[in-house]
Design brief:
Layout (H helix, E strand, L loop, with lengths): L14 H22 L3 H73 L9 E8 L8 E4 L12 E3 L4 E8 L4 E5 L6 E6 L5 E6 L6 E7 L9 E4 L11 E9 L6 E8 L8 E5 L11 H15 L1
Antiparallel strand pairs: 1-2, 1-12, 2-5, 3-4, 3-12, 4-5, 6-7, 6-9, 7-8, 8-11, 9-10, 10-11
Length: 300
């Protein structure tokens, strides 16, 4: 038999005993922490001790991020500042031009003795979406009869006539564009004063000026403005520019194609004009019939 000398140092408990003891201690601490929260104070103390170490460990990354954000923000602010300066100069030039034109128009009206145009109130609206109907040209704006919008009111943008309100909901309204097939706008040729009516043809890029004689005084490039005879659109608003004229002696009317003045397919914000145009109320059908009968009797 082999003989093993006794160990020089006395060994402690066996590995199994130590494993069982520490496992039981761990389970006891977990249960005590969950049920009674005895270790909460210890956790807070440990968190306070290691917090400076955590901050120190994350400091390089935080500094690098802050430095990068500083340079990016500085460059972006410089670009935005330059853009705002250019836009301010452009807006100032446009405003000065509009003020000069308004002053000149007022002076000419006073010289001619014409009654000044009655101003209308306007409601600013933003286009929400366009209905997915390929056969109509309509948009929906974010103002309804809760905001004072009524059916029949004119809709314009910063360039010219956009369309007309055709349906009104509590918080939304549907606007039929001037390029819709069911939309007609009374116009006047700015150069010659000739009156007519433009009709939409179903897509955003063109209008038609119908029922104009072949020998009518109209040319390519003529500006068409609202005549104001319908009581819906104020007079003088740009509607379209004549782009093509086809005259054929075999037909009584010329075929005239126009380009809309307003950005019908590109705008985002519009103005809805109030219906207060100063026109007297239209007589009812009964009143009109009674007046006609009286006129005939008087003639007899």
């Amino acid at each position: 038999m082999e003989y093993a000398p006794p160990p020089f140092f006395k060994h402690g408990p066996s590995l199994l005993t130590r494993f069982a003891f520490f496992s039981l201690l761990s389970i006891t601490l977990l249960v005590a922490d969950v049920r009674f929260g005895y270790l909460h104070v210890v956790q807070q103390a440990v968190g306070v001790v290691i917090y400076p170490l955590q901050r120190l460990a994350t400091l390089p990354g935080t500094l690098a991020q802050r430095i990068g954000e500083f340079f990016v923000t500085h460059a972006r602010l410089e670009r935005e500042n330059e853009q705002l300066k250019r836009q301010t100069l452009l807006d100032a030039a446009v405003l000065q031009n509009q003020q000069a034109v308004a002053a000149e128009n007022q002076h000419l009206r006073e010289m001619l003795g014409l009654r000044g145009r009655i101003p209308r109130d306007a409601i600013g609206a933003e286009i929400v979406y366009a209905p997915r109907d390929p056969f109509t040209r309509r948009v929906v704006v974010d103002k309804g009869f809760q905001h004072g919008v009524k059916a029949g009111q004119a809709v314009v943008d910063h360039i010219g006539v956009v369309g007309q309100v055709t349906r009104v909901f509590p918080w939304l309204s549907e606007v039929t564009l001037v390029t819709d097939k069911e939309q007609a706008v009374p116009i006047q040729v700015l150069r010659s004063g000739l009156r007519g009516v433009t009709f939409g043809i179903g897509y955003d890029g063109a209008l038609e000026l119908r029922f104009m004689p072949v020998n009518a005084d109209i040319q390519n490039g003529d500006v068409l403005v609202t005549s104001g005879l319908d009581g819906t659109y104020p007079s003088g608003l740009p509607v379209a520019v004549v782009s093509n004229i086809e005259r054929n002696a075999a037909y009584a009317f010329a075929r005239i194609t126009c380009t809309p003045a307003a950005a019908v397919g590109n705008f985002g914000q519009v103005l809805i004009l109030s219906g207060d145009d100063g026109f007297p109320a239209m007589p009812s059908t009964q009143e009109a019939g009674g007046k006609a009968r009286k006129a005939r009797k008087g003639g007899e």
